[in-house]
User: What shape does this take?
Amino acid sequence: MTQRFEIPEDEFGVVRVFEVKIDDPIKARTFLTPPENDAGRWPLGDALTARDPKGGDVAPDPRYVDAIGAGALEGIGLAAYLSEGVGVAEADLDGDRARLDQVTHPVAVVLSAAYGGQSVTLEPTAPLVWLGSWSEARAAPVLNAPMAQDDYGPAAPGPALPPVGRSRRWVLSAFLAGAAVFLILFLVRGALR
Assistant: This one.
């Protein structure tokens, strides 16, 4: 059965999570990894390609798609990653926590920004299996309201923000490093007793 998601142009803060049903780790890595310099095919991007209202293809922006290998979440669990790394409220995950933490395949975490604020229809294809959609527990978006002008002209724009995907990977890396240090300290302390 094909899942269908209508993504409105003003959508903000929705996190869609898909399990990637590929058992072979080499095939999974090939499927998940976007090509360098935007040259070549990205199988995950192909499986997540949506259609705009005119029927044109809209590929997801890889900066807003976190592709996570099966082993990367061992000891942490998908629910903790969604809460700590992506910002989904713990309470929103409570009913799904056990199911999410039993996922053994790679996952794709797709943020609203992946489709560039366009109105699209997403019908993900195999090997993707939808696990659920949740909202980020973060501040509301800054709207692009007209800037006020004064006697000195328009206000200067602020600095550009880094892509969300990179900062989320940093959070996951920091979380994994912290967990590894904690585990080592725990094992060393147990060995000294």
